[in-house]
Design brief:
8-stranded mixed β-sheet, single chain, globular, disordered N terminus, Dipeptide-binding Protein, domain 1, 4-stranded antiparallel β-sheet, alpha+beta, Dipeptide-binding Protein, domain 3, D-Maltodextrin-Binding Protein, domain 2
Length: 610
């Protein structure tokens, strides 16, 4: 297997081992993760020696800029997203299946590359204390925007678009899925056409969260100014958007495909290379891999959750290569902490009605003891992942030491016996007046169905009945679909979810401080990030402490405490620390995948091998 990208055989054990294929970038235009966390703490009296995180990668030395190439001329590029996108508005969906399709046409102010560096996209430079962009008291950040950028319809991109994006997503009736990422923002002001200032409610360490990465895509004010609030969900923009990216959307069939054409006015000279892009959805991971590795029908296949033996056999055909890189997130078993069989507030799985079984910690612990994580990892993932006890595996410094897992059915039975979950006449245990018969749903995928079977078989041995349900991925990850994991009408579900470089916002998945906003439910169009309906006041308190803390040593300790809590309280169950796995045609070069963005985040740099 090939790690990172074409032309660079490296281990995927360390993010900093990934190599660059784009040439150099001025060191003034980017900051490593460690650098900007350090610089953001200047002024709070925090010593640089207290900084946490891996050593920052060296800044690339500046080189002479090559002569500008001509954009286009590369013909078509074919991408396979076997979980088909269903919406193209970045602030109404953060589903993995949608964000890749969105990032091809839309852009944030900055993104994280494979070397952990924050690099400009729509910004002219990365703010810092030194250049005056980051306030020394941590209460604001000012971004200078790249000039000469236009929207796909020819209108100028300005700071007003950035300010509007915040106004759009912060309106509660918009039901933006990205709202939680902006919770510390007090205001966003366009102080000049090329300058935007973000003021925070209190000093923050992660000043870089708003308008960067996946939740940071900028929206066009002139198109969406009348689609704020309740009108947002039905806006034509959601299906036929415009952006500033290297490609324009020309056609979109939800649940099927997206077609793009080269943006001739793209703000990076000489890019992109390919004339058109087709992102085809549907099918399954195996057929997508086959189309790249064996038949050569496509150039890139995304998210290949496939048994290692099957994938290796396909690669032997010689048409393409398997690409792996770190940071694929953690494969998790989702626990519904509410009752999917009782209706309240005009919905099932209401946060007001606890699950009759999972409200008992003993039951959740028994479930954890009944999962063979080593078998799942070795047989179904191979180099695509390893067994884990943690629910967040992307940032080692935030993972408390000593958490372990154990497969032990005797301990599981004993825990169930302690809460009087006694077997009924049919051998199935009964607890709190209800048979322990659970619906276990997942997206349709051969690996996930085998995971379900492994877990089902073990649970049967401890007196728990399991019904398996497989839902087409385009429906499972679409909040409006009744079978989606956001609506969670099953007892158990599955997802892979990756943390960002600073994991505060990742913990929104456990937050219930304001249930009306935090928990996915009908009244917020299932936009709450807490899809498990997990409620723990201690977690809420820790979240508030982390949000207010700017000392790296202290917030690292808080994050470790948060991870310790959700694992020991069995909020959900981490199964496999996944690597990202994709397939690339041997004709393709220029890609540099990063753990912090979709596969195609740098699609403007992709081209065919010479």
């Amino acid at each position: 297997m090939r790690a990172a990208a074409h032309g660079a055989e490296v281990s995927y054990s360390s993010l900093n081992e990934l190599t660059t294929r784009h040439g150099s970038t001025s060191p003034k235009s980017q900051l490593s993760r460690r650098d900007f966390l350090l610089r953001s703490s200047i002024g709070f009296g925090v010593a640089l020696a207290t900084a946490c995180g891996p050593a920052a990668p060296s800044q690339p030395a500046p080189t002479a800029a090559p002569a500008a190439a001509r954009a286009g001329g590369g013909g078509p590029l074919s991408l396979l997203w076997w979980q088909a996108p269903t919406i193209l508005n970045a602030h109404l969906s953060l589903a993995t299946k949608d964000v890749g399709a969105i990032r091809i046409y839309a852009e944030p102010l900055a993104d994280f590359n494979a070397q952990n560096q924050l690099v400009p996209v729509l910004s002219a430079e990365i703010p810092s204390v030194e250049n005056g962009g980051v306030a020394r008291d941590g209460t604001s950040v000012t971004w200078k925007l790249k000039q000469g950028v236009t929207w796909h319809d020819g209108q100028q991109f300005t700071a007003s678009d950035v300010a509007f994006t915040y106004r759009y997503l912060s309106e509660p009736t918009t039901s933006a899925t990205t709202l939680g990422y902006y919770q510390d923002v007090a205001s966003v002001d366009a102080i000049a056409p090329d300058t935007v200032k973000i003021t925070f409610k209190h000093p923050v360490a992660a000043w870089f969260n708003p308008f960067t990465g996946l939740p940071g895509q900028i929206l066009p004010e002139h198109v969406l100014k009348d689609a704020v609030g309740a009108a947002a969900k039905d806006a034509p923009f959601n299906l036929k958007p415009i952006g500033t990216g290297p490609y324009k959307v020309t056609d979109f069939k939800p649940g099927d495909m997206v077609m793009y054409a080269l943006n001739p006015e793209y703000h990076v000279s000489g890019k992109p290379f390919f004339d058109t892009v087709t992102l085809k959805g549907g099918g399954d991971a195996t057929s997508a891999a086959r189309a790249v590795l064996q038949t050569g029908e496509a150039d890139w296949a995304w998210n290949l959750q496939i048994e290692p033996g099957v994938l290796n056999a396909m690669q032997n055909a010689g048409r393409g290569e398997v690409v792996t890189w770190v940071g694929g997130g953690t494969e998790k078993l989702i626990i519904n902490h509410t009752d999917p069989e009782t209706q309240a507030d005009d919905q099932f799985s209401s946060y007001r009605v606890p699950h009759p079984h999972f409200k008992e910690l003993n039951v959740r612990q028994a479930l954890a003891y009944a999962i063979q994580r080593d078998v799942i990892a070795s047989q179904l993932y191979g180099p695509g992942g390893k067994q884990t006890a943690y629910t967040m595996n992307e940032n080692a410094q935030y993972m408390p030491p000593g958490l372990t897992w154990e497969y032990n059915l005797d301990k599981a039975r004993a825990l169930l016996d302690e809460v009087a979950a006694a077997p009924g006449p049919d051998g199935i245990r009964v607890l709190n007046g209800r048979r322990m018969s659970w619906l276990y749903s997942s997206s349709t995928n051969s690996v996930r169905q085998k995971e379900q079977e492994i877990i089902k078989a073990a649970l049967q041995q401890i007196g728990i009945e399991v019904e398996i349900k497989a839902v087409d991925a385009s429906a499972y990850f679409s909040a409006s679909n009744a079978d989606s994991f956001q609506q969670l009408k099953a007892d158990l579900g599955m997802e892979t979810n990756a943390a960002g470089v600073y994991p505060l916002l990742w913990y929104l998945r456990y937050l219930s401080a304001d249930p009306a906003q935090d928990i996915a439910q009908k009244d917020n169009n299932w936009s709450g990030r807490n899809i498990m309906r997990y409620q723990n006041p201690q977690l809420n308190d820790l979240y508030a402490q982390a949000a207010a803390e700017v000392d790296p040593t202290k917030y690292t300790q808080i994050f470790q405490h948060m991870q310790q809590l959700v694992v020991t309280d069995v909020a959900d169950i981490g199964l496999v620390a996944r690597n990202n796995v994709a397939a690339a045609s041997k004709r393709l070069t220029g890609y540099q995948p990063t753990p912090w963005a979709p596969d195609i985040w740098d699609i403007q740099n992709w081209r065919t091998a010479a």
